[in-house]
Design brief:
By secondary structure, the chain is mainly β.
Length: 840
């Protein structure tokens, strides 16, 4: 074989991929032998297929036959560990290798209705793939954006819709050895399936609430030097809020075999905030509506059709700014159709889905940073340095998609003494993204106080005989729409021979944005050591390709902002003129490879103490990750953000977990040790090819930046342990306990200070000290948080029941250490949720 034949072309470049070659070789061998067997068998040797009846999995680890790293949580786990706020964060905490960020324990987590972000196997929080009823709800509209007051952006989230736990029937999480049917991720996959109706009608109404009076706060005041000549700092105020959730669900059979599910939930939070000397509320609201129909198609098929509507809104204002009320909108709607059909030789599954979501803002047009003067004095009256007014205008960011997926699986066919199954399919997605600003936006800055200024009748951005603005930034009206077409093919062959199960597969992906042909190998296998199912060794080698974030294409197509300035002539304000100074920014995104992750996994699964113990080692090396560098001002007057593939990271993790169910008791325990190193925090973090050669100051020493051993700062605690326990006491009382330990973490962070380095000689011969960015090693202490839920169910007439529940988060009132040592801030301690549910 020539060298060119032993390489795989991806993204317009050839890469050596041994795992891919192994996959191809095994696939060809299996298909060849299978074809020969089928030829020699003939029609006369036809026989009935042996059907193996397997019990339903009893722990999250059961029910997986192909060595995939899957954790399955059914309705029991969702009911017991899903939060009273409608989230499934408590369920996801049962997965080793899945880690929540530092913000999950901040005061903002009490107020925010959006799900907490998390990392899987070292991937960034926006590098996961989220599926609802088989169709992607992953948000690609700037998921790393968090600033609600950004001028040209709206805060995003990695999930385009926030689904209430009452509507969910099952959750599956893949952290390693992910099958070839899944793609466009370099973290993990989270599959959510909505409920199906059962054989009997059932329904429920529930209400849950919490508020600031039920929270124990700790306040910290920054360090103060009495000899500094300054006043001692005032302690920060504790946040006030209220939060509640109402849920209504009903499921009923229709006719002989069909069923309908109707679900409605609404969550709301309200947060008082002092602005311009008075208290006003900022409010969030999230609504979930689900209608799902399930019906058989003859005696071989089943159809699911669902419609979901999940809008999110956040009513806010800019603190200490007059006339600044604005609303952020997110979420959207989706519709999914699913057909499962058992053919004579193939089992088919067809899925088609439509999804729409938005990240939009409705706000006053134009923002004014007035100086405090005689007639413009609301800032002075509120003891604020300036009198700010207005907002950043309406902004619409929309994402729509149409998706289709077909998947087929063969029956188990004999190949000598082995059984062979094939699984293959195809998918196609069309997506459209839009950025729209209807009107030019002006942000006025640098007010000049002039008691003689003449505004020429203009009172919009000039105050007669008081002040005028000398500078403004102009954000032009814009309407940009880009599209993305994606296609994928995948196939896997699984061979069961005696005590060995092996799966080899390939996946091909193409999208017309990056324009790369990406081929990923998926290889995994297991060995049943004693042929009794109690001791199983697993291993795998896989490649995963990430997704194209269309926010880049929108940025590239948008018109850049520019600055204008003006002065006065004999105290008469002049017209605005374009600024001829430093150029504004534009984005360039072209000729880039698709980010990918190469994974090696080794594991052991052992039946012990009546449960299942799992030990696994996962190694990920991520390459070609998106980052950016910045140019100087170019001849056309612009500075450019150049997107590149210079980002890289790596993950090493070992985890041990044990799950058991006995009677009415569920037990889960896991411990994970991991290390994640990275070159950049996210896709907007700059990575310059020459940056590694620059000198910085670290712990008082002058070293090259490339010598810094950068650990991931968030979602990367080195040691995480979790204990979950749920038990029924009789028929009426249930207790659910979750205890989570996060070990101490040391990270290298930039302090923001600049220090003197060595003397350097300039071309002029002058000797000056070089200026070095300062980096320090920061320690984050251990956290040990326990949550306890107690519920009591009282039977009612006509087979109904009333259940009361109290959830105590941070039961032992431990510190969360979200406030750094010596700084001011507020931490949350013990806090309560109260719920009431009526089942009918």
């Amino acid at each position: 074989m020539s060298s060119s034949q032993s390489r795989l072309m991806t993204g317009g470049r050839w890469r050596r991929t041994p795992g891919f070659l192994l996959s191809v070789a095994v696939c060809l061998a299996v298909y060849e032998v299978h074809a020969n067997e089928a030829t020699h068998a003939g029609a006369t040797n036809a026989h009935l297929e042996t059907i193996m009846v397997r019990p339903i999995g009893q722990t999250p680890l059961d029910g997986e036959r192909t060595a995939a790293g899957r954790y399955r949580f059914d309705a029991r786990y969702i009911e017991r560990f899903g939060g009273p706020d409608g989230s499934v964060d408590g369920v996801l905490r049962l997965v080793p290798g899945l880690q929540f960020g530092e913000s999950a324990l901040t005061t903002e987590s009490l107020l925010d209705l959006r799900p907490e972000s998390f990392s899987i196997s070292g991937g960034r929080f926006y590098e996961n793939q989220f599926l609802l009823d088989g169709m992607s709800i992953t948000n690609r509209l700037d998921p790393a954006s968090t600033n609600p007051n950004a001028i040209s952006d709206v805060p995003g989230h990695e999930q385009s819709q926030f689904i209430d736990s009452a509507l969910i029937g099952e959750i599956r999480v893949f952290d390693s050895n992910v099958p070839a049917e899944f793609s466009r991720f370099t973290g993990g996959v989270v599959e959510v399936e909505t409920r199906r109706a059962g054989m009997e009608a059932d329904g429920s109404v529930s209400y849950s609430t919490t508020r600031s009076d039920w929270v124990s706060y700790r306040t910290f005041t920054r360090d103060w030097d009495p000899d500094s000549g300054t006043l001692p700092p005032e302690p920060p105020g504790t946040p006030e809020f209220s939060r509640d959730r109402l849920s209504l669900n009903y499921a009923t059979p229709v006719g002989e075999a069909s069923g309908v599910v109707i679900g409605l939930s609404r969550a709301r939070s309200s947060t008082p905030q002092v602005t311009l000397g008075r208290t006003r509320s900022q409010e969030q609201e999230n609504t979930n509506l689900l209608l799902k129909l399930t019906t058989p198609l003859g005696d071989r098929g089943l159809i699911d059709w669902s419609v979901g509507y999940a809008p999110y809104s956040n009513d806010r204002f800019i603190v200490d700014a007059k006339d600044s009320d604005f609303t952020i909108k997110g979420g959207g709607y989706s519709s999914t159709g699913n057909l499962e059909y058992a053919g004579d030789r193939l089992d088919h599954q067809f899925r088609v889905g439509v999804n729409y979501s938005e990240n939009s803002r409705s706000a006053p047009k134009d923002f004014f940073n007035w100086a405090n003067t005689r007639s413009i004095d609301w800032g002075r009256r509120a003891d604020v340095g300036n009198s700010r007014q207005g907002g950043f205008g309406d902004l619409d960011k929309e994402q729509g998609s149409l998706s289709f997926r077909w998947m087929a699986e063969t029956m188990g066919n004999d190949l000598g003494q082995a059984e062979v199954r094939h699984r293959f399919g195809a998918e196609a997605n069309h997506q459209r993204y839009r950025f729209q600003r209807d009107e030019d936006l002006y942000v006025y800055q640098n007010p000049v106080i002039n008691s003689e200024v003449q505004c020429r009748g203009n009172r919009y951005d000039c105050q007669q005989r008081e002040q005028y603005f000398s500078t403004r930034s102009v954000y032009p009206a814009d309407d940009v729409e880009v599209s993305l077409n994606e296609a994928g093919l995948f196939g896997e062959t699984t061979l069961n021979w005696r005590r060995v199960t092996g799966t080899v597969g390939l996946r091909y992906d193409y999208d017309d944005f990056l324009g790369n042909h990406d081929i990923a190998y998926r290889t995994r296998g297991s060995l049943d050591v004693f042929d009794d199912g109690r001791t199983v060794v697993r291993a795998g080698a896989n490649r995963y390709y990430g997704a194209a974030l269309l926010t880049y294409k929108l940025r590239e197509a948008r018109a850049p902002f520019f600055r204008e300035y003006r002065g006065t002539t004999q105290n008469v304000v002049r017209d605005w003129e374009a600024d001829s100074g430093e150029g504004t920014f534009r984005y360039v995104f072209e000729d880039l490879d698709t980010p990918f992750s190469d994974e090696i996994m080794v594991g052991l699964r052992q039946a012990v103490l009546g449960g299942v113990f799992d030990l696994q080692l996962v190694q990920r090396d991520n390459r070609d990750e998106f980052a950016r560098t910045t140019t100087d001002t170019q001849p056309d007057g612009y500075r450019y953000y150049l997107m590149n593939n210079d980002g890289h990271s790596r993950y090493r993790g070992v985890s041990a977990s044990w799950y058991r169910e006995f009677g009415e008791t569920l037990v889960g325990l896991h411990l994970t040790y991991s290390e994640t190193r990275t070159s950049n925090a996210d896709y907007d973090d700059p990575v310059d090819a020459t940056g590694s050669g620059q000198y910085v100051s670290y712990r008082g020493e002058r070293i090259r930046y490339g010598e810094l051993d950068i650990l991931r700062e968030d979602f990367a605690r080195p040691v995480v342990a979790n204990l979950s326990l749920s038990r029924h006491f009789g028929e009426r009382i249930r207790a659910d306990l979750n205890t989570r330990y996060r070990g101490r973490q040391f990270v290298i962070t930039r302090t923001g200070r600049v220090v003197d380095g060595e003397l350097v000689e300039l071309p002029s011969g002058e000797r000056v000290f070089e200026q070095l960015d300062e980096y320090e090693r920061e320690s984050r202490p251990v956290t040990f948080i326990t949550d306890l839920s107690l519920s009591y169910s009282q039977p009612m007439p006509r087979s109904t029941a009333l259940t009361a529940q109290v959830q105590v988060n941070n039961l032992f009132n431990e510190r969360t250490h979200t406030v750094p040592s010596g700084q001011s801030g507020v931490e949350i301690g013990r806090h309560y949720w109260v719920s009431l549910k009526y089942d009918f």
